[in-house]
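Notebook entry, structure prediction.
Reason for the run: the old model in the group folder had no record of what sequence produced it. Starting over properly, with the input documented here first.
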Amino acid sequence: MTTIDPYVSQVSWIKRDVTYDPRAQQTAIVVAVHFNDGTASEALLILDPDEQMSLWFQLDNVIDRRKAAGGPSEWHAHTR
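New structure, fully documented this time:
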C-alpha cells in the first residue's frame, strides 16, 4: 500500500504584528500553512526589500479595485 504525504492546500496570514529586521533588511510575516489532511503549522514568510515593494504595490491595487467595486473605503480596526 502506498502512503501519500499531506500536501499544502493553502497558506493564510496569521493576524499578528509584522516585524522588520533593519540589519537584514527583511520583513517577517507569520503565516499558517494548511495541509489537505486538516493539520496546520505556523511558518514565517520572509520578504526582502524588492518583495516588500511588490507586495505593497499589489495590495494597493487590490484595495483600489475593492473600493471601485463598492467595497468599504475605510479600514476598520479588528480585535485580535
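Summary: The longest strand covers residues 26-35.
The old model has been moved to the deprecated folder.
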